[in-house]
Every structure is written in C-alpha cells, then in structure tokens.
Design a protein that fits this description.
Helix content is 45%, strand content 12%. With 379 residues, the protein is α/β, with parallel strands linked by helices. It binds adenosine-5'-triphosphate and magnesium ion.
Length: 379
C-alpha cells in the first residue's frame, strides 16, 4: 500500500545517478510501506491527520525537495554536502539520525533525501518492528541506495536493534535458525542502504545504535520569518488568500513548529470562510480565530497554560518533579517532557533545575500573576 505517493520508480536510476553526479536526481521518491504484514500505525505517519482527506492535504503541503524546505539552514547545508558527495562518488548516503521535538520536519526530510537521491523510501516505526522477521523482511526488500526510515527509533525492541547493528555496519543480515543446541546462525548479504532514524528523545537511544549513525542532526524550532514563509507557502497550495501580516500572526502562535503553523492556518481558514466569506486572512481575523481556538498570542494552548498555572498556584514557584506535575495535571509524563516542555523551555517560561521544573517570572507575568521575590532571583 502506498502511503504518500505511488509514482513508479524510473527504470534506470543507477545510470541516471552516474550521469549526473553533482546534480540532484530528478525523479520523485517512490514511497511504499514495507511488508504487507507489518502492523504499521498510520496515525504515526501523519500525526495530525484524522481523516483521509486531511491526510491527502498533508501530503500536498509537504515540501518535496531540499530547496522547498524552509529554514533549518545548517541541517540543509550538511545534508546538501552529504548528498553531493555521495552522488559524485556514486555511493550510498551515510546513515542519518534526526532528532528534535515533534512536527519540525524529520519525516519530511527523510522523504526529501530519497527524492534528491532518486531512491525509494520505506517508512516504518520502531514499535512495529517487534519480531526479528519484521525488520529482516524490510532489510531484504531494500534495493541499492534505498532509504529505510524508522520513526521513534528510541523505541526499538532489543532484538531488532541487534539485527540492525551488522546490517548498518556491514550490510549483513545475521539470522538464527532453530533453537538451543541446534541453533545455527546464517549471514545474508544485504544491498547497501541508508538508515534514517527519527526520534524526539535522542538521550533514550543506546550508544551502540547512536554510534552507528554517520550523521547525527538536531532540528531546531523555526524562527518567525521562516514560519511565516511556511504559512504563505501552504496558503498558496491550499488556494487560501492571506496577507503577510495575517501569516505573521499565525506564525507567532505556532510554537516554532511547521506542523502547528499549518494546522492553525487550516483553523483560521475555516473561521474566515464561515465568518467573513470572500475575504482574505488578515492579522485581525487570524487573531480572532485563534483566540476562539484557545491559542494565545505566544502560541500557548490550554494544556500549556494549565501546566504553568498548576506550577504557580499549587506549588507557588517551588520546583516540581516531572511525575508530580504529571499527576497534578493528569497528563502523561512523557508527553509533558516531549511535547510541551521543549517549547516552554525555548521561550523561557520554564526552567529545569536539579530539584525539578520551575515556572519563570516571565510565565507568571504572561498568565497575569505577580512573581514572588524568590522567583525574581531567576530573572
Ligand atoms: N522545513 C519545512 N518547510 C515547510 N514545511 C515543513 C517543514 N518542515 C515540516 N513542514 C510541514 O510540517 C509537517 C510536519 O512535518 P513532519 O511530519 O516532517 O514532522 P516530524 O518532525 O516528522 O514530526 P513527528 O516527530 O511528529 O513525526 C509536514 O507535513 C510539512 O508540511
Ligand atoms: Mg514524523
């Protein structure tokens, strides 16, 4: 089943790569789900898409090539060099680990790499690789140069991880047949491939796995002008008229994250279509709509504000442990850590101290509280 696109693979990609060593290949990447039997959670592949229609839209607005990928300048430079070097030597790209908070463009970048290299990209997610045969099936199906994208790679089961070591290093699949005394290990050669791993928690990777990636790159939150550009680009694809200041208003509330920027744009578009038919999205309309959807001028949503409010009201500025915070808010500790905290840390509303999390004076003020003396020491 093709998830993202099912354009057929050009028949002669090896020779086209050889002819055009320094130029990005012109073919689109062919994207396919690995083996039919893999229990792949499609929701993970399009996290903000609940409907098929939304999923299709999501794919329409995903940048396809490096030049369309806004921001992440140093990441693009590093990858551009890696692509050109691999192409000129007619080699396969080095294994790449991408890490950073959700929605910053890790999956998008893996797909772009495949398109630039003119190879297939097979997409899976670590929890789907439960049994050795899941990963073995995928590995043997790869053609020379293909990209294997494993999302949430910090969640790989141990057995799968151990199969990946020789596969990544020596392009060899070691399989054990039989059990106990009769067990035999067989080695199968694999085609050279590129593993692209994505994770929101690089610290949770084992070091043998992390060390096998030739490139380890972090994705950063986007600047306002970059997010504005993304909003303008998406609006153009969706044929939604918008002013530059309208785009900037959405960008300001998008928590440095393209996925959120695109999602907010869709909400604002709905609002404008219903409330002010026929007009373009302006700064005022965008602000009005986003207030209605509970997204404040800093991009904080209901959960962010609740986290901070509980820290302020229940703990009066004292450090709070993650588990205590999770219990007090009813949110899952891992979700707080991976989804909410990174942005609050980035904008300076939260600090991590050895004794726990603290809401900063800026957060107190943003939520309309007067920070106590003890908090002002943090200023
Ligand atoms: N640099 C970018 N330029 C333009 N749009 C982008 C960029 N990065 C991401 N997007 C948009 O944001 C959406 C989310 O990106 P993507 O799915 O790649 O994030 P992710 O890092 O893989 O998230 P997750 O960790 O949740 O899997 C994409 O559909 C794409 O449209
Ligand atoms: Mg992703």
């Amino acid at each position: 089943m093709a998830i993202i696109s099912s354009k057929s693979q050009p028949p002669d990609r090896e020779s086209s790569r050889a002819k055009l060593p320094a130029e990005p290949a012109t073919q689109s990447a062919q994207l396919s789900l690995a083996t039919g039997s893999l229990p792949i959670d499609e929701a993970l592949l399009k996290p903000d898409a609940t409907l098929d229609e939304t999923g299709k839209q999501e794919e329409k607005i995903r940048p396809q090539r490096l030049r369309e990928y806004v921001g992440q300048k140093s990441l693009k430079e590093v990858l551009d060099i890696a692509i050109r070097a691999a192409q000129s030597r007619q080699e396969v790209l080095d294994h790449l680990l991408l890490y950073g908070p959700p929605g910053l463009g890790k999956t998008t970048m893996a797909l772009i790499l495949a398109a630039e290299m003119g190879v297939n990209c097979k997409i899976t997610t670590a929890p789907a690789l439960e049994r050795p045969r899941d990963i073995a099936g995928l590995l043997v199906s790869l053609q020379h140069g293909d990209i294997l994208f494993i999302d949430e790679i910090h969640r790989l089961p141990r057995v799968t991880e151990e199969i990946l070591y020789p596969a990544m290093e020596d392009f060899r699949l070691d399989i054990t047949i039989g059990k106990g005394q009769n067990a035999k290990t067989r080695s199968l050669p694999l085609q050279r491939f590129t593993l692209v791993g994505a994770t929101t928690r690089v610290g949770a990777l084992t070091s043998p796995l992390r060390d096998r990636f030739g490139l380890v790159q972090r994705l950063r939150f986007y600047e306002l002008d970059e997010l504005s550009q993304i909003v303008l680009r998406t609006a153009a694809i969706l044929s939604t008229p918008i002013t530059e200041t309208g785009a900037a208003e959405i960008a300001r509330r998008a928590r440095g994250t393209p996925r959120i920027a695109n999602r907010l744009l869709r909400r604002v578009r709905d609002y404008v279509e219903v409330k002010a038919t026929g007009t373009e999205i302006t700064e005022t309309l965008a602000a009005e709509a986003l207030e209605l959807f509970n997204v404040d001028p800093c991009g904080l949503d209901w959960t962010d504000r609740r986290l901070l409010t509980i820290m302020i009201e229940n703990f009066a500025g004292r450090p709070v442990g993650l588990d205590t915070l999770a219990a007090a808010t009813g949110e899952d500790a891992q979700t707080i850590e991976e989804v909410y905290e990174p942005y609050l840390l980035q904008i300076g509303y939260l600090q991590r101290t050895p004794r726990g999390r603290v809401a900063t004076p800026a957060a107190w003020k943003h939520l309309g509280y007067q920070p106590p003396e003890s908090q002002l020491a943090l200023l």
